[in-house]
Design brief:
The complex is a heterodimer of chains A (162) and B (433).
Chain A: H1 11-15, H2 18-21, E1 35-39, H3 42-52, E2 60-64, E3 70-73, E4 78-80, H4 81-85, E5 90-95, H5 101-113, E6 117-123, H6 131-137, E7 143-148, H7 150-159
Parallel strand pairs in A: 1-2, 1-5, 5-6, 6-7
Antiparallel strand pairs in A: 2-3, 3-4
Helix pairs in contact in A: 3-7, 5-6
Chain B: H1 4-11, H2 18-23, E1 27-32, E2 44-48, E3 51-57, E4 63-67, E5 81-83, E6 86-88, E7 95-96, E8 102-104, H3 111-116, E9 122-123, E10 125-128, E11 131-135, H4 149-152, E12 158-165, H5 169-177, H6 182-186, H7 206-212, E13 217-223, E14 226-234, E15 240-248, E16 252-254, E17 263-272, E18 275-283, H8 291-298, H9 326-331, H10 341-351, H11 368-387, H12 396-399, E19 404-408, H13 414-418
Antiparallel strand pairs in B: 1-11, 2-3, 3-4, 4-9, 5-6, 6-7, 7-8, 10-11, 12-18, 13-14, 14-15, 15-16, 15-19, 16-17, 17-18
The chains are: A alpha/beta (162), B alpha+beta (433).
The complex binds FE2/S2 (inorganic) cluster and fe (ii) ion (FE2).
Chain lengths: 162, 433
């Protein structure tokens, strides 16, 4: 048969119909595993706390200490950063221009060493971005939303089944 | 993951649907101009946004787009006879002008009075560049004519092709926004880059950055007409090489340029909920396309496709398993085994089924660009539906946009570094590496 002729028996032609799509097997997909959402400054922490309040399957929410070595839970308990991210499959950075570059670098480096997927949200109300903020966060997050708001964080978490 | 009701909201574009209403706020490409090649030529069937229409070009040179079926007994006007001032149904001789208004109903005695009450639903159809554009929305709210640079540069600077893609429009659009698939599907996977093999990409300096850094970072930036989706790779001395793809609502994207090659981009236009037209174009802002470039495009290089002669269906399609070559797939010569960017995309996007079930996706944090685009689409649809808010993208300022490739210092917002490089400006070359 010539390449251009219609062959109703080709594997793809049979498979891609709406009828066949209905046979895609149905079973619950695993949620993301141990999503960590980390705020890197006070104002980012407010956004993170308000999204956290919705209630999530497994995601956990923190504010980073200024060294980044500690993560403080929403209820105010300090935890060791490395221990908290160790078993995570994705870490989401939330920051504004007020963030501490050192904290971002230490959490970022820990994620990179462990090949943990990262995403960042720069929560800016308005005005131009500071180059220092960008230069500090860029190397550590695979994807950065600029600017982002509370809704972006909410949609992202929902989409990844956090 | 997307809730089923939101999946429906974003994928259904027929009359009366919220997304259909959104699409009806824009001029959309519907035909190549040469599908109606001369005054008085045969009419052409058009299906767009789940509406079956017929396009005519009268002997006087007037374009018209109207209900495909004769008001009398529902015969397809594909069989109509194009006559002075319009088109006549061959069944009982009812004749319509380019606006679908009946102008002659031979069997009726009080002919002109009767005619007044017979009108086929019709839409404006205009030629701009080498494309015929239609507007299916409220006539009171008709936007300015399209201002996309590819359609407004002189004809010899631009080339457009289209191909049938047998799946929902959103699946195709998402491929255009999802930059992270590029280094896999089109780049030859982890092993290398297919760029130099294509005459429409070869030789650009930027290709070396692509090859040298196979794990790009992404930045997704809000833009008036939609989003800017940027892929960032390492360049010399701590500099970054940026490739920035603009998405303009609802269905327009531009691919970042390579060297002095023409810029390419796409429109994904819903035919119905299970098919769309993938329009692909290439244009250069300041020079004519060379003969070699045009023949490469005609042969299906770059973003174009080789279609079955006389049709817009690709030669490699689902009926022949997209001519997948398992030997080349194994050797790595073709990472997916499928030849050509266009078919690499269509083979995979069609394989998801006509309308993919987005409740079964396992999205990850780095899909943030797609997540954001869906969110923007949804907000635009709901704002139009609930408050009548005009969506972005149907004004000239949002359409006069360019994609960009550039090398910048590490601490610069790329939007700032690029500045008016995003603006389509007559006589000014594209910003490219
Ligand atoms: S790896 Fe993305 S769809 Fe399979
Ligand atoms: Fe693609």
């Amino acid at each position: 048969m010539m390449a251009t002729s219609t062959n109703p028996l080709s594997a793809c032609a049979r498979a891609v119909t709406a009828e066949e799509a209905a046979y895609r097997i149905d079973y619950p997909l695993a949620h993301a595993r141990s999503t960590r959402v980390i705020a890197f400054d006070e104002s980012a922490a407010q956004t993170v706390a308000s999204v956290a309040a919705v209630g999530w399957g497994q995601a956990q929410f923190y504010t980073a200490s200024s060294s980044g070595d500690e993560l403080v839970t929403l209820s105010g308990e300090p935890r060791v950063m490395i221990a908290e991210i160790e078993h995570s499959d994705s870490v989401i950075f939330a920051a504004t221009d007020a963030m501490d570059p050192g904290a971002v670098a230490s959490v970022g480096a820990a994620c990179r060493e462990r090949s943990i997927m990262t995403a960042g949200l720069l929560l800016l109300d308005s005005g131009p971005l500071s180059g220092t903020t960008l230069a500090a966060i860029r190397p550590y997050v695979r994807v950065l939303l600029v600017p982002a708001d509370e809704d972006d964080l909410f949609e992202l978490l929902k989409a990844i089944r956090a | 993951m997307l809730r089923p009701d939101i999946n429906d909201l974003l994928t259904q574009t027929g009359p009366g649907t919220p997304m259909g209403n959104l699409f009806r706020r824009y001029w959309q490409p519907v035909l190549h101009a040469d599908e109606l090649p001369e005054d008085g030529c045969p009419p052409v069937r058009v299906k767009i946004l789940s509406e079956r229409l017929i396009a005519v070009r009268t002997p006087e040179g007037e374009y018209g787009l109207m209900d495909e079926f004769c008001a009398h007994r529902g015969v397809s006007m594909f069989f109509g006879r194009v006559e002075d001032g319009g088109i006549r149904c061959p069944y009982h001789g009812w004749k319509y002008n380019a606006n679908g208004q009946a102008i002659d109903v031979p069997s009726e005695l009080n002919n002109s009075e009767f005619c007044k009450n017979v009108k086929l639903r019709s839409y404006p159809l205009v030629k701009l560049g080498d494309i015929l554009w239609a507007y299916l929305g409220d006539p009171q709210k008709q936007p300015a004519l399209p201002a996309w640079e590819f359609a407004t540069v002189p004809t010899r600077q631009t080339f457009t092709s289209k191909r049938l893609q047998e799946n929902n429009w959103l699946q195709a659009l998402e491929g255009g926004i999802d930059s992270s698939h590029v280094s896999w599907l089109h780049g030859g996977g982890p092993t290398g880059s297919g760029l130099e093999a294509d005459p429409l990409f070869a030789g650009a300096k930027g290709n070396q950055y692509n090859k040298g850094d196979l794990k790009p970072f992404f930045e997704v930036v809000e833009n008036d007409g939609g989003l800017l989706i940027a892929a960032r790779r390492n360049a010399e001395e701590g500099h970054y090489y940026w490739r920035v793809t603009p998405w303009v609502l609802p269905n327009f994207t531009l691919v970042p340029p390579r060297g002095d090659h023409p810029i390419h981009g796409h429109f994904w236009v819903p035919i119905d909920d299970e098919n769309c037209w993938s329009w692909s174009f290439d244009y250069h802002p300041t020079r004519e396309l060379s003969e070699a470039e045009v023949s490469a495009m005609e042969a299906g290089a770059g973003v174009h496709s080789k279609n079955i002669p006389g049709t817009y269906r690709p030669v490699a399609n689902k009926d022949n398993d997209y001519l997948i070559d398992r030997v080349k797939q194994k050797s790595g010569e073709l990472f997916s085994g499928v030849e050509g960017i266009a078919i690499q995309d269509s083979s995979l996007q069609e394989s998801m089924g006509p309308v993919v079930d987005r409740t079964k996706e396992r999205l990850v944090a780095t899909d943030a660009g797609i997540i954001k685009a869906r969110q923007k689409l949804r907000r635009a649809v709901e704002a139009l539906r609930d408050h009548g808010t005009e969506p972005a993208g149907n004004v000239i300022e949002h359409q006069k946009i360019r994609s960009v490739a550039i090398v910048l210092p590490p601490d610069l917002p790329f939007v700032e570094g690029i500045g008016d490089g995003f603006q389509a400006r007559e006589g000014v070359p594209q910003t490219t590496v």
